[in-house]
Amino acid sequence: MVDKNHSTSRRQLLTALGAAGITGLAGCSGDGGNGADGGDGDAETDTTTDTATDGTATGSDGGSGMDSVTAAWVYNSEVGDLGWSWAHNEGREAVAEQYDWLETEYTEAVAPADSERVFEQYAQGDADIIFGCTFEYQDPMAAVAEQYPDTYFEHNTGYLTMENMGRYMGRIYQARYLAGQAAGTVTETDTLGYVAAFPIPEVIRGINAYALGAASVNDSATLKVRWTNSWFDPPTESEAANALLDEDVDVMAQHQDSPAALRAASDAGIWATGYDAPMGDIAGENYLTSPIWHWEEFYGPTVESVRDGTWESDAYWEGLESGICSLDDWGPEVPQEAKDTVSESRSAILDEELDIWTGSAFEGESDEFLFQEMSSYVDAVEGEVPS
Hints:
2 domains; 11 helices; alpha/beta; globular
């Protein structure tokens, strides 16, 4: 049974940001075995409860809205992993703390094969909106959404939308491009490493963005990729990172839930780049930076739209300008040259003067292509995407 004791009660209102995203990315149902951002596991629960004490309700009631909203999150890994699920749970906690009228619940470590059951139990219960936080939840969520048209659903990283099911993602590739610029500036061997999860568009997009960032400041820089075919498998991630270390890489990046690749890089004395969450405490003096998420920037406006009676299914895909993603703070030894270069490029992206795909094979491609069809590398990446 879904653990309803994973609840955090209501507090004062979070300033709502516009949640309008791109439209028209709805497609066919997802592709089976490859997930996005998370590992498998059995559902785990605890009895953490946090009750609000301020009693303040400052949100808009809306013409056809509700006095309160119950929102449920389903995670595919434990929230304590300092990765993907941790970042989503930070977003949940942020909106739960600031909205007086919001009740939140979550279930962690839910394998994709078990997710339909969990979604259905929340839909049968008191959840007004359910968030599924990995790609592999797309089809199970769609099946449940069809059976429960009066419940709202939001799927993270996928491309399928329905009347009562939206989808959301952020343009984290912009932050990866900036991290790549930093990597291209600090490398001495001109060889960068990247430990990657599954060869799906989301991950390929990040690899290409990182490589393009590095190439923009260092035309000799190349990127080597090792695949783990898992979102959370620290031993395999460490093994992949060590294989890259044997190939003379001196900057390491990653796209997994754990900091294993970052830790391996730091232990070897090379620059380390994380993902999802701030990881400077792990890498210490070897820390470069990390592309990180701020999911509250989506969750806040979304739960408010449920309360106000204005929720609509859409395809949210915003970038740095929205605050949904950013770069973490710099490590203590990052040179000023790298910081200045990244600062300039970040401003250019925000001013819409820089499209990171300009000059690459993907210049002029549609958002639909970038989001769900990218399947090959840019020139600065060695090898080919596994078939």
